[in-house]
Design a protein that fits this description.
Number of helices: 8
Strand content: 5-15%
Oligomer: single chain
Largest sheet: 3 strands, antiparallel
CATH architecture of the largest domain: Orthogonal Bundle
Number of domains: 2
Strand order of the largest sheet: 1-3-2
Order of helices and strands: HEHHEEHHHHH
């Protein structure tokens, strides 16, 4: 559920004010179902829950030109922004692939230095995991699954990949790629000059 919370809060924060269909449209356009577990039904369920928890607030769109009832629009609350930032920071240190993907999708909403710090923490945790996993005993005919060479090998390979991906992303950040929250005005000044 935390990756869904993260992406829904992130879309609402990015848009400022939006309705549920706007969140759905963004996530569909981004093909979010390929890198998260977000499904159309989970978006609306998450929005209901976020509203109940006071993380987003609903209001009438005030669209008088449209026939029928007006749409409910949502805005993030200060508590919602705090929750979003907490989830985002947790996602950038996570080894859970869908949560990490959601974190990368919204990483530019943090300062570059903070993202670098979080990814360095993730890299260290991933390296520690690789070192630990390599110490696990295996058996050619395993007595229990924890000693299955293919299972242990899969996890070693996964965590080695996590190390490589994180190193690559950190290098991209050090090379000045992407635009972050603390760089927005400077970036806009350069592009508008």
């Amino acid at each position: 559920m935390s990756s869904i919370r993260l992406v829904v809060l992130g879309v609402i924060l990015r848009r400022g004010i939006t309705h549920g269909y706007g969140v759905h449209q963004d996530l569909a356009a981004w093909r979010a179902e390929t890198w998260t577990s977000v499904k159309p039904g989970s978006i609306y369920h998450a929005m209901e829950k976020l509203e109940t928890q006071g993380l987003i607030r609903a209001g009438d769109s005030g669209d008088k030109a449209k026939l029928g009832p007006s749409r409910t629009e949502y805005a993030i609350t200060p508590e919602g922004k705090t929750e979003f930032l907490k989830l985002l920071e947790g996602a950038l240190t996570s080894n859970e692939i869908q949560l990490l993907a959601a974190g990368i999708a919204f990483m530019e909403m943090l300062p570059r230095g903070r993202v670098t710090e979080l990814l360095e923490r993730r890299l260290e945790k991933a390296r520690e995991s690789v070192a630990f996993l390599r110490t696990l005993p295996t058996e050619p005919v395993p007595a229990d699954p924890s000693k299955h060479p293919e299972l242990v090998g899969m996890w070693v390979g996964y965590m080695e990949y996590a190390v490589d991906v994180t190193r690559h992303l950190l290098q991209s950040l050090r090379d000045g790629k992407y635009r972050f929250a603390d760089e927005t005005s400077a970036w806009e000044e350069k592009t508008n000059a």
